[in-house]
Amino acid sequence: MALQQAAWMDVTFHVQTFGCQMNKHDSERVVGMLESLGCQAVGTIEEADVVVFMTCCVREAADVRLIGQVQTMKNVPLRKGSPVSKRIIAIGGCIGQRDGDGLFKSLPHLDVVFGTNNLASLPGLLEDVIEHGGRRAETLEESKAFPTELPSVREHAWAAWLPITIGCNNFCTYCIVPYVRGREKSRSLEEIAAEAKSYVDAGVKEITLLGQNVNSYGRDLYGKPRFADVLEAVDASGVERLRFATSHPKDLTDQVIAKFGTLRSLMPALHLPAQSGSDEILAAMHRNYTVEHYRGLIDKLRSVCPDIALSTDIIVGFPGETEEDFEGTYRLVDEIGYSQVFTFIYSKREGTPAARMVDTTPREVIQRRFDSLVEVVQKRAFEANQRDLDATVDVLVEGVSKRDSNLLSGKSPKNQTVHAPIPDGVSLESIIGTIVPVHIDEARTWYLRGTLL
Ligand code: 5AD
Ligand code: SF4
């Protein structure tokens, strides 16, 4: 007997998300599916009858955190009046895909496992477990179709993530993603344009296009539409702000770079992961570009859009990284002057080619390299923000500052966090999700502060 709609209505759920934007978007679909069954979303694990973990396995720290968190859930009592006899715990996302039913061994109180390719199976698996008890795991090698038909509940009314590709064909030697997200698949241009239009009609101000490597969009489609065509189509939807992530430097074309100078909605900010500033390490990573090529891309971007805000990812301590290799990375970061750098210490992932490479650099040496990189990152980010002192920037208001609820918090076109006092007589509700002009009075390393005009 299937659970009746009325029974689902008594079930509460909470989704906890780790990792990248693609996972956050998948979580929006999980929320959408469970809400369309009638379940009620709640803000905490304590209140939830069903807890879904959307997991990440890109680095070991995320693995360890998840296991610890699921283990401690044994001690969290079920809420009074719950319609289920035991809290149902589900693991989805990349760890679910990688480990499948193997997770039941280390987590005996886990009930459901699903993967990245079968989000749509979750309601059926939950229903089975609630009705019949026991545990269920289901993962698929490849997704059957692009998961666009699943309902989705957006975190913010004014912003939408729009996946244009799923999966990755690059196999960077350190990276687990191609093994847990499968081969790259592109959505059709028509479908993307229609979805963008529907968001704009619903009042969305900002669309972020998603893919592991958006620049290789379309290679698997008839007529081979390119990423530059996607940018044009989404701009034509009338959206106010357009962003995208992530770009692989080997596939960033001149046509896409040119769009930063011509497309009305494309924001002057680009995340372009360099990973390393050493040609030897880039080759060992299987990145397929040189430092010189990367610098050339930055020069072209700056000639088209001089004030573009650049961000990047850097891995420190890849197997075999010498002092000289690291100096190359340091120099690159110092010279480019990124607005933001996500710095990672290399984390060995079983099953990837780099896991078999000899890795003899002492931990303290890697930590010292990492610390010196973080120092230069902060210095350059602080300098980059000074360029906006006394400028007036358009801020998309997202809410209030976490530290001070009298300050509004939002994002500039360059994706900087901007805070400003909410003027007397103005309600937050009236400006949330709108774009307002703010005069910048103070520029710190990670945020700007100003006055609403
Ligand atoms: N170790 C450390 N960092 C990694 N990343 C991916 N795999 C690893 C790994 N094994 C980083 C890369 C990537 C970002 C999302 O995570 O810098 O761009
Ligand atoms: Fe991982 Fe490289 Fe694919 Fe990015 S491009 S997801 S780093 S394999």
Overall tally of structural domains: 3
- Say what the CATH topology of the largest domain is: pyruvate-formate lyase- activating enzyme
Give the strand content. 15-25%
The radius of gyration is: 23 Å
CATH hierarchy: architecture of the largest domain: Alpha-Beta Horseshoe
Number of helices: 15
Neighbour order of strands in the largest sheet: 2-1-3-4-5-6
The quaternary structure here is single chain
Shape: globular
Distance between the termini: 60 Å
What percent of the residues sit in helical stretches (DSSP H or I)?
Answer: 25-40%
Which class do the helix and strand fractions yield? alpha/beta
Average pLDDT number? 94
Q: What can be said about the biggest beta sheet?
A: 6 strands, parallel
The bound ligands are: 5'-deoxyadenosine, iron/sulfur cluster
Instruction: List the uncertain runs.
Output: none
Describe what you observe in this structure:
It is globular, with a radius of gyration of 23 Å. The mean pLDDT is 94. Strand 13, helix 13 (323-336) and strand 14 form a beta-alpha-beta unit. With 453 residues, the chain is of the alpha/beta class. The N and C termini lie far apart (60 Å). The protein has 3 domains: 3-138, Cobalamin-binding domain (Rossmann fold, 3-Layer(aba) Sandwich); 153-386, tm_1862 like domain (pyruvate-formate lyase- activating enzyme); 392-452, OB fold (Dihydrolipoamide Acetyltransferase, E2P), CATH 2.40.50. It has 15 helices and 19 strands. The strands form 5 sheets. Strands 2-1-3-4-5-6 form a 6-stranded parallel β-sheet, with helices on both faces. The chain has a 5-stranded mixed barrel with strand order 15-16-17-19-18. Bound molecules: 5'-deoxyadenosine and iron/sulfur cluster (SF4).
